[in-house]
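User: structure tokens for this one?
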Amino acid sequence: MEQTILVHKRIQEKHPEIFIDDVLEAWKSRIKCQVRTGPWPPQYVAIGFDKKGRALQMVAMYDPAKDELLIFHAMKATETVKKELGFD
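Assistant:
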């Protein structure tokens, strides 16, 4: 069974230039991803590129019971997240 990847609708509400397909492509092509310490359930922060070549930062939660990943934040990659992921 393939993992289900969901994209929260509020992403496009807050960033109308970013579509669900952009987020899914950026997640599939992520160049760096790591677990954030502290929150429960664990959050994963990642940077990947969409088909337009934009670097997007994403934050997701994984539900192992459903083998489901929910990407609830996505936007143009910021310097803060680049630094968090070691791109300084």
